[in-house]
Please model this.
Amino acid sequence: MNASSHSDLMHPLSNAQLNALEEETIFILREVAASFERPTLLFSGGKDSLVMLKCAEKAFGTGRLPYPLLMIDTGHNFSEVTAFRDKRAKELGAELIVRSVEDSMARGTVRLSRPDEPRNAHQSVTLLEAIEEFKFDALMGGARRDEEKARAKERIFSHRDSFGQWQPKAQRPELWSLYNTKLQPGEHFRVFPISNWTELDVWQYIERENIELPNIYYTHLREVVERKGLLVPITELTPAQAGETVEVRSVRFRTLGDITCTCPVQSTAANAADIVLETLTADVSERGATRMDDKTSEASMEKRKKEGYF
Model:
């Protein structure tokens, strides 16, 4: 293999192509600021929301974001991620609004079928309550089309009715990057500025822009057990089951969410460049390799989205 072909393998997207994705995202972020009265940017402290936040900095300037950051906290998030979330918001001088699923549980609007039930699906209730509380009319999220089949069906500007519901068969066309942002009272939009990015794009952009991430995205030693083809982290919420062997392995997280359903992958990747190489050879999708709650059908995820899920 000659030097140029090796370079193409290492970096299949040129800077020009990454620039095009960045430019599109910045355009969408500015379009939302110009078109809506009370927008917000969903910010978890995860890699996708940090890429989106980096583009927002470029769109408006550090300390000048025209909308607050919103986090819907399950109460079962990794402490490294929530600490990083707070740190990053403070550095940017951004307003951070946190609403918790546990508050919804206290109000009785969320009821779990069992104490250890994953709370990701219940975030939709808390999110809709936050929308009502702050009268948000546009919520920007870091979802990508390559993550999951139901997400691939959704437009960049996803119209939601007064109940927060998504109707996939009634989506508005988006020809030539023209977006219909007309709303009736009580309705809102979910907007996905990095919808056209892939996991590989995200990591190449993180590498190029030197974006700081929570340290658990990179290799570290962690106690895990093998369960149903996944590496389950050993925590108070996810203890080992009878007959399982606890091992200490070098792992990293490809995606982050509720501790009860988020698994790491075995890895020695210590930086973004290493992860770019791993991602090039990955044969299992990001969510398929790491999320216990995604071992469900496409129809199940679509149903959750219709009910107001991210």
Observations:
- The chain has two domains: 3-201+298-306, 214-294.
- The chain has a mean pLDDT of 85.
- The domain at 3-201+298-306 is CATH 3.40.50.620 (Rossmann fold).
- Strands lie at 39-42, 69-73, 96-100, 138-140, 157-160, 188-191, 220-227, 230-233, 247-252, 265-266.
